[in-house]
Amino acid sequence: MHFAPFVLFMVLSIFFLHSLQNEWEIIVLGPKLVSLTAYPIYVLTILPSKGNTKLINVYNVTWIKVIALLFLLSIGISILRMILELSLGISYFRFWDTTRYVALVIIIGFFGVRYGTLYQTLSPRQSKNTVKYKTSPLREDDIEKIRIEIERIFETDKPYLNPDFSLEELANLLSIAKHHLSQILNSEMNTNFYNLVNQRRIEHSLEQIKQYSKLGLTLEGIGYECGFNSKSSFFHNFKKIVGLTPREYFKKISTA
Q: Which of 2, 45, 129, 138 is the most exposed place for a label (fewest CB within 10 A)?
């Protein structure tokens, strides 16, 4: 559908361009105006809501709306120019048309390189979470504030060092419902509570192991200090995240 008008006029020009040289520019002008008007309106009204949210993630479309508005402004100038030419006989320098088109191409290139993506395919997990939480009352700015607050709490208070730290306790600290917190962790941060907490515990243990000789603790004791309930849980998560056992990691940094 997108290329059909182009193909149609290319074929017609083979048969009629020579016989209708004077009229051909006017014949082409009508569809051209319709196209240059219809596409920006389509972008501004239909395109942002066109995507299937089960399959794609719609990025910020402000930049493409700006381009659409510029095209509408450009076509408005063209129509005004034609009216002046036809009604008042005012000549119009083709140089200004060329300048306008060059400016549009530069702007499209700038925004395209800077932003580029309009849609991104969701992973099956992201798609599932999008459907699951599509009725959530949380707004995008609320979610971002909560994400920032989670980072602040984890950095300053380090509640994950408490072995009894729970999803409910974190939800209480954030003053939100548990299921809303789960939504943010699952669909926005691509993790879950236990993975997030264990990640922070292991990161903390890495700093502790660097001071291993000063702390007077065993490696198992460091695991307990970092919030793990057992040696096996500490060693399992350490190997999963770091790729080495705590002892292997200690030997590595000691010989470095």
A: 2
Q: Is the pLDDT reported for residue 202 higher than 90? A: yes
**How would DSSP label each residue in 83-131?**
HHHHHH-----HHHHHHHHHHHHHHHHHHHHHT--SEEEPPHHHHHHHH
Q: Which of 82, 73, 76, 78 is nearest to 97 (CA)?
A: 78
Q: What is the pLDDT of residues 8-27, one digit of tens each?
A: 888 888 877 777 776 777 77
- Residue 218, token pair as written in the block: 């065993």
Q: Is the pTM of this model over 0.70?
A: no
In Å, what is the CA distance from 233 to each residue of 19, 198, 256? Answer: 85, 10, 27
Structure tokens at 45: 């009204």
Residue type at 68? Answer: A
Q: Tell me 58's DSSP state.
A: E
Buried b (16+ CB within 10 A) or exposed e, 190-207: eeebeebbbbbbbebbbe
Q: 107 is written with which tokens? A: 């702007």
Q: Please name which of 228, 219, 220, 223 lies closest in space to residue 253, comparing C-alpha atoms.
A: 219
149 Cβ contact partners less than 8 Å away, ≥ 6 residues apart: 174
The full length of the chain comes to: 256
